[in-house]
Each structure stands twice: as structure tokens, then as C-alpha cells.
Amino acid sequence: MNSRKHFLALAVVAAVAGSAYADETCNSPYMSKLIKGQEEFVHVWTLGVEGLGDGSDKLVTIDVNPRSRNYGKVVHSISVATRGEAHHMGFTDDRRYLWAGGLGNSQIYVFDVGSDPARPRLVRTIGDFVARTGLVGPHTYYAMPGRMLVGALSNSTDKGGATGMAVYNNKGEFVAKYDMPKGEVGGVVGDGYGYDVAINPAKNALLTSSFTGIDNYRRSLGEVVGDPAAMKRFGNTMVLWDHKAMKPVQILSVPGAPLEIRWSLKPGDNWAITAAALTSKLWLVKQDADGKWQAKEVGTIGDPAKIPLPVDISITADGRGLWVNTFTDGMTRYFDLSNPEQPKQTYAKQTGKQVNMISQSWDGRRVYITSSLLERWDKTGEDNEQFLRAFHWDGKELTQAFEVDFTKEKLGRAHHMKFGARS
Amino acid sequence: MAARPAAGGRASAALCLAAGALLGWLGGAAHAAADPTPAHAPQMQFVPPAPGTYQLQRIQRAPDAVLVDARYQQRRLATLTRDKVTLLTFFYTYCTDAWGCPFARQMMTSLRERLLARPQAAGRVRFVSISFDPTHDTPEALRLHAGQLHTDSRLPWEFLTARGMRELLPLLDDLGQDVRIEYDDSGRPTRTINHMLKLFLIDRDGVVREIYALDYLHPEAMLNDIETLLAEEGRSIGRGR
Q1: Which of A1, A8, A13 to mutate to test the interface with B (most CBs of B within 10 A)?
Q2: Are residues B97 and A6, on separate chains, in Cβ contact within 8 Å?
Q3: How far is CA A199 from the centre of its chain?
Q4: What are the phi and psi torsion angles at A411 (to 5°)?
């Protein structure tokens, strides 16, 4: 059987057996079992709120299969019995386990989502992150074969933005630590800050971005913005690493806290895109004709003077479109990336009073949005909506399909999302 | 990787038993899964770093197990992951997935030929292939599958099978090698074994130093990794580019 027929046969088997594939244009390229059809569940890593439910961080599972009688409902919730500022999470390479971390307590929780994605189980807590690395605020979880690359935000010494990355094996054992560069590499001096990590295996390229330390992200946003000294303590660089050697080869100047990184998944493409939070700009990181990586400002998101604060972004599977959420104005914008050198905004809609994370299905027809940015940066009073909202996208309009009110359900602040399916 | 072998009642029945054991071990991962791998060859658009200019991570210790080779001899895996640099993978003989076991075998065969051209390396490297299916992949099946490869002492290539799933599953679990039986629409196990293609590079002290998934299978980079481990012994193998 040739490979095309073989994959077709497998697809048929999968369809008949009722299994499903889904999204995840932002997952590690080393991760298996991408879901390219209808996702069945969305797991939401949720910050506990004092006085709401048990007050602890929890992994909330929502049934998003339209054929299910539980469509749009919370079907499972597992508390970690403490409040440590739940933030991001990532699957292991085989998608059997989901690693989720606390920015406040630097704990890493490992959930079994492979045995039954409708009922994740907490199977391990990794508590040695600070002791092993001297880092705090484990942020990004990015699968490597048999390992997890963990990007951190801060350090335990001065609580500032100088930080690094750690590697753990899939058993949860510490393997290695790598500092973000502070010296000059490729003509640019590094600030040592960190945030997201993303790998392009065909290029042996690991790209990292930069945010701020725990001395800023655990303060209220108003205090930070009103403190000129604090506002200077944000990352202004990205770093291109030799992934095999885990050595920085080029530091790129990208001012204004470049956050989420998305490589184009289109075969042959050699670029990634990011959004700088403080300057509200889109930046393209691309290899030039000489093979050197260059960072270039390519677009503006909203009115930078109003500090819309672009946060999460989501690239389409074909690399031709990008969703951008801006926290302050609660807007969700779509940019045409047909020419990544000149992104064009083609759609905008206010999807909440505050919005942060955005995830789309592989086919781009479904878009999920959550509300929480950081425990102490979220809005207050009536503006502090906490939700997951699901939308249909027909290429012209976002139409809301359902909403889960995380406050009404006594769950907490809805943050990072990952899809699940029984496959 | 998944494979769809020719029909065979004995093997199907055997695999039913294997599937039961697998499900018991994996805690009820009972849903069918299509091949998770990308349908394309790994792309390598870079020059890998030179041997000895970087350090490979010490990922975990290679586990031990009692296995059986193609000569019906019991072998301790620990003795086959020490004293040489070892490239280890899991497979099954009737796998036909173009990007699964056959691709790994093709890659390892090519790598082997390149290592044999470097005499200093050849005596210090071994390959190990362990079957996912102890019932079907008997020592005799291994012998037929291996051909001349397992008798060439210049670069030992051990083909191994377990005496049963009870002995195999802890090994898979320790190395984090996922494996699931694919089911048909009636809920019956097929002869397709889904698994992530992984090759484990193990140093002479028995420590896993690199794990190659499909996207990592770049022969030049793998050769450099092997040479990097050999260089740790203080003896460069002089690849003579």
C-alpha cells in the first residue's frame, strides 16, 4: 500500500471508529496526534479565586462536541488544592499528559489526559523547579521528544526578568537548564528576559521571546503602568537559538515585550510572527537570503496610544491568517497574512470586556476565547468577566456558539486552553 | 506509526491478547487512533553543529529488561546498552507505515553503512531493535526480518523480542514509548499498532542522551551526535568528511 492510500485508510478507520482530530496550530511540532477534525473537549487551566468555590487552581474540562448532550457544559474539574496563579500548559510529545504550571508558586502539575480526556487525572506534581534551576514562574511548556522544555519568566534571586529555560524528561526528572543570554550575540545585547519558546525543526531553530519578572507580573497592572522604573523592566529582545546545541546564535531587537510566538506551519515557510504587548506591534522574524534571521516590524494592532495590550495570537494552519486578542479593549482582530511582510486587519469584534487567550480549530471554523490575563492584571468590578466563549467563524463573522461563565460556575479565572479528543 | 499488515488469523488472535494486556497497562486507552505522524519526510534545512561542539542532554537512564534475541538466547537489555554507543528503537515486523518502522529501518541501515566506513566508530556503536509484539514476532520472525544484519559483528544490530507483554510493557513505560492498538468499527483490535516513532541514543554508561522523533531523523545530525558521544571518551573517530 502506498503511503497516500495508507493514510487515507487510517483516516477512514479513524472516522468510522468515531475518533476525532483537532486544532492546535500552536503546539510543538514534535507532538503527535494533532486534532484536525472536531475537538471534543477544551481543557481550561483556571486560576483559583479566594471565596469562589474551593478557591484553588483547577483544570476545567468543557464538552465542545456539538453532538454531545453535554455540549457547552463543564463536564469535569480537578482542583490542585492550592492557589498558585495557574497560567499556561502544554502536552507531552505523545499527548498523553498535560503539564500545567503556576506562575506564583512555580509548581508544575502533570495531568493524565490520554486515558480519558473527559476526566483528566492529576498524576504528578513537580515541586523542584526553583531548587533545580534558580528560576521562578514556569510559563511555557513545549514538548521535545521524551522531554518538556519549560520557559520561565523570572528568577529566585532578584525576582526580576532575567530568567531561562529548563528541560525535564517525561518522568518529571530535571535534565538541564539554559540561561537567557545577557551578553552580545549577533550585534545585539540580550536582556536575559524570557517568555515563549517555539521550535522550527526543519531549521533547527528555537525562538524565544521576553516579558517581565515576578516583581512586575505579581503587581497590579495599574501600579506597574504608573511606575516608570517598573515599565523599564520589560523584555525588548527575542533570541534565535541553535536548537540542537541549545546555544543562542542571534539576539533580535524587538522592543515592547514580544510575547507569543507562532511559526508558520506552511511547508517551506521560514518565518514566525509575534506581537509586542507594550507597543502594540506585529513583528516578523524571518530568515534572509544569507540565512541570517531578521526581526521586522510589520503591522500595528489597534491604537498603540491607547495601550490595547495585544496578548494571545493564533495562526491559521496554512499560515495565511492570524487572530490577535487585545486585553484592554476586549477586541478580537483577524489579520490577513497572505503577505506576512504586510499583515492587513480584515475583521474586528469586541468579544468581551477583557480577553486574553484565543485558540482555533485546525480548520479555523471554531474559535475559543478566555478572559484572564494575570491574577493581578485582570480588571475589577463589572469589567472582570471570567469566561470561555466559543465562536463559529465563517470567514466573515464570529458568531457565538456558547459561553461558560466561570464566575457563575464558581470556577475562577479562565486562562489557557488545550483541546482534547478520544483518539 | 501505524501499519496495516496482511490478514492473518493467528496473529490477529495473538494481538487480541496483546491488546488486552496493553489496555490493562495503559489504563484503558481504548479508543482507536489514526496515525499521528506528519505525512512527509523530515526536512533538514540547516547545517548541524559539528561533533564535540555541543553537549547532549542526559535525559534518563536506559531501563533493564530480560529479552530474547533472534537466536532464542535470553539477553539482559542492560548489557546491550552499555560499553558502546547504542541506537535503540521499537518496531514490529509487519509494520508497513511508510513513515513508521520501515522508515526507521531504512534510516538505521543507511546510518550503519556510513558508520562502517569509519572503522574507529564501527566497533563502538551498536543498534538495538525491540519488537512491540512478542506473540507474533518470535525469534524466528526476528531472524527472517533481520536477514544478515544481526550476524554482522562489525556493527552489532540486535533484534529482540519479549517473552510476553508483562515483560515488555514496563520497558515501554520507562522509556515513555507510547503504543496503542488500533480498533476497527466493531471495537475489535486490528493488526495496526499505533506508536510514536522514537529512536533512543544511549551513551556507553547507559544514559539516554537524545531521542529522535520523525522530525529529528536527520542522518548528518545523528552521525554528529554519535560522534559527540564517542568524543566524550576522548577518542575522536575521524570521520574524514
Answers
A1: A13
A2: yes
A3: 14
A4: -105, -45
Q: How many domains does chain A have?
A: 1
CB A388 within 8 Å of CB A368: yes
Residue found by looking up cell 458568531 in the block: A399
B231 touches chain A (CB under 8 A): no
**Maximal C-alpha separation, chain B:** 58
Contacts of B49 (CB under 8 A, 6+ apart): A242, A244, A245, A247, B224
Nearest alpha carbon to residue A42 among A14, A19, A22 = A22
Domain that holds residue A194: 3-420
Residues of chain B with C-beta less than 8 angstroms from the C-beta of A242: 49, 54
Instruction: Walk along chain B (241 residues) and give the pLDDT tens digit of each residue.
Output: 333 222 222 333 334 334 444 433 333 333 323 334 445 678 888 999 999 999 999 999 999 999 999 999 999 999 999 999 999 999 999 998 888 899 999 999 999 999 999 877 878 999 999 999 999 999 999 999 999 887 788 899 999 999 999 999 999 999 999 888 878 888 887 878 888 899 999 999 999 999 999 888 888 999 999 999 999 986 444 444 3
What is the homologous superfamily of the domain B9-28+49-232 according to CATH? Glutaredoxin (3.40.30.10)
Q: How far apart are CA B128 and CA A137, in angstroms?
A: 40
Using CA atoms, how far apart are residues A378 and A221, in angstroms rounded to an integer? Answer: 8
For residue A109, give every residue at least 6 positions away whose Cβ sits within 8 Å of its Cβ, in sequence order, or none: A59, A80, A99, A100, A101, A102, A122, A124, A125, A126
Task: Give the tens place of pLDDT for each residue, A356-397.
Answer: 999 999 999 999 999 999 999 999 999 999 999 999 999 999
From chain B, pick out residues whose CB is under 8 angstroms from the CB of A14: 32-34
**What does the pLDDT look like over A54-84, one tens digit per residue?**
999 999 999 999 999 999 999 999 999 999 9
Contact B195, B78 (CB under 8 A): no
* Sign of the four-CA dihedral A124, A125, A128, A133: positive
Which ipTM score applies to this complex?
Answer: 0.90
- B190 CB neighbours in chain A (<8 A) are 13
Q: Could you tell me the CATH number of the domain that includes residue A271?
A: 2.130.10.10
Task: Point out the residue among A9, A17, A245 whose CB comes nearest to the CB of B185.
Answer: A17
Q: How far is A366 from chain B (nearest CA, A)?
A: 22
